[in-house]
Amino acid sequence: MKIHGLVPAGLPLLILLLDFCLVLCGGRDFYAILGLPRSATTHQIKKAYRRLAKELHPDKNTEDPEAVQKFQDLSAAYEALSDTEKRETYDRCGEDCLKKEGGFGSMDPFQSFFGDFGFGFGGQERNKEVLRGADIVMDLFVTLEELYSGNFVELTRNKPVSKPSSGTRKCNCRQEMVTRQLGPGRFQMTQQSVCDECPNIKFVNEEKILEVEIEPGMVDGQEHRFVAEGEPHIDGDPGDLRIRIKTMPHTKFERKGDDLYTNITISLQDALTGFSLNIPHLDGHAVHVSRDKITWPGARIRKKGEGMPNYDDNNLHGVLYITFDVEFPKKELSSEEKEGIKKILEQSSISKVYNGFRMSS
Ligand SMILES: *[C@@H]1O[C@H](CO)[C@@H](O)[C@H](O)[C@H]1NC(C)=O
């Protein structure tokens, strides 16, 4: 389809044609597979892919005879739409056209772009014989906000990449038995190291952008594995790069599992007469807190569903525990004020002898 000659008036027609293209041009509807509109952003595509990949992985759907096909469709959809160039081609003329232009379908559906998502899929057992470079483990410090809402983080990796170089080098060295005839009926067997000659290579640093998705509900120590992005090995495969999630301390919230804890200081007046307030949550939404009853220092309330999202099911949330501290007034009270307060509270002085701290509960 030639676009150059089109006048603006032809544009609606072109759009119409594009819409029909999927039907006319053949191939799968990758947007439908991902459940997204054609206007979806790259991040939406990645998010949808991530969610569906977890859901549809054949290891988790052993009952479904179409599980492998569904997963492959999903991977193809992701491959086509996550890459700007491929997406453009696909939008223009569909899957068949994408295949014709080459370079499509090269992705191993079981080896995702984002590493293995930390779900430890089976079927990736490595041949122990193959030499491998070391894994690199890197901590990625993330905020609680990012773990609550999710985020995409770009990492620039300076990676040594092997390039052909002049000359040869010894490679694939192994021990072999060599038999030498010393005379009639006499042989000597010796072990010696035998190597092949390989073209020489050198390592050149190349910059590479890696994208890590911080998924809602991830926990400390969870890893993203970037296959083959670790240390290279001259005679074998590179190791993996493992990005490990580390939560930075937060000033307002503490996390335990999927639950969150926060403290609120209220005035003595509010503690006695009740209050209504909003506290901003990690994504900025307001959590409404109100009480009519008296609130004592150390009192704790539970807000269901206001904790962290659960990693496996982002629709489930933990509990938010709010603990109250009461700030007493510092001003001096006159004798009349004191009498007034006594009259209101009608609380006899505690006359018990000291019996240790009374735990508020
Ligand atoms: C809340 O207060 C307790 C007691 O002082 C403290 O141990 C805890 O770290 C505080 N939590 C937050 C989130 O600041």
TrEMBL record:
Source domain of life: Eukaryota
GO biological process: protein folding
First and last residue of the signal peptide: 1-27
Pfam families listed in its UniProt record: DnaJ, DnaJ_C
Molecular function GO labels: misfolded protein binding; unfolded protein binding
UniProt keywords, alphabetically: Signal
InterPro entries linked to this entry: DnaJ-B11-like, DnaJ_C, DnaJ_domain, DnaJ_domain_CS, HSP40/DnaJ_pept-bd, J_dom_sf
SMART domains tied to this protein: DnaJ (SM00271)
GO CC, alphabetical: endoplasmic reticulum
Occurrences of domain J (ranges): 29-94
Name by which UniProt lists this protein: DnaJ subfamily B member 11
Annotated source species: Folsomia candida
Lineage: Eukaryota, Metazoa, Ecdysozoa, Arthropoda, Hexapoda
